Amino acid sequence: MRELIDVFLNYLSVERGLSNNTIISYGSDLVKFSSYLEKNNINSFAKAGRENISEFMFAQKEKGLSPASIARNLVAIKTFYRFLVRERILKNDPTAVLETPKLWKRLPEVMTLAEVEALINSPNLRSSQGVRDKAILEMLYASGMRISELANLKIQDINLDVGFIKCLGKGKKERIVPVGRKAKEALSRYLNITRPKLSKGQAQSEVFLSRIGKKLSRQSLWKIIKNYARIAKIKKQIKPHTFRHSFATHLLEGGADLRSVQEMLGHSDISTTQIYTHIHKDRLKNIHKKFHPRG
Q: Which positions fall inside the Tyr recombinase domain (predicted)?
């Protein structure tokens, strides 16, 4: 069973071009499923029926897994079985009649403009690290990039003269995103003054480097953001994706059209982008309630 999982994961990587994080998640979910089958004396995916898959889901629920995690487990299993049938490894797909549970979409946490300003202005620009971190925060808010996209951003992906950056997003899809004046200034200062000191003469293609001249990892970028959120005394939990949510929401509040925001975020489906319109509507309702005489 593990061999079939490996074949499937290779397919996701080579033919589907999915990100490493997605492939790791699928692999983890499928190994967990295969272990469950083995414990119940089922040594082949062909011998697992709809009842076994449903029982596995209930077992995950009893372990305390969130509805979102359980739904992700089922998506991984359904995708896996479709692959096995398409490759003619199996004749029947026991997941064909199983529905993925509908989940309530939770509205993402968004920073206020004041919180964004406080966070971005937190780094100490008298230090090389502060100059770098200021550029990181400015770029996240200016572009709506995912943290992995920022970590993998390369020198050749930046055109400060025109004011655009090239992002390599999910599924290795490229998109061009404009960046504003403040982000350009912060990035230019970092590239011209600080980055040469950090690179220590090494030929590194990534934009953002650590103190020892290596590429900054996603985990390091996460720690940087958490540290400045603490310095800025922001009480809500700030994650890298909070910048992306704030970027989209503030654009829509400023009058940007949904299609343009979709393109800048790199969403393949506009329904994914539409969640930000709900945030915008909620804000308008709160303003109406607060200021209207009969609110």
A: 106-289
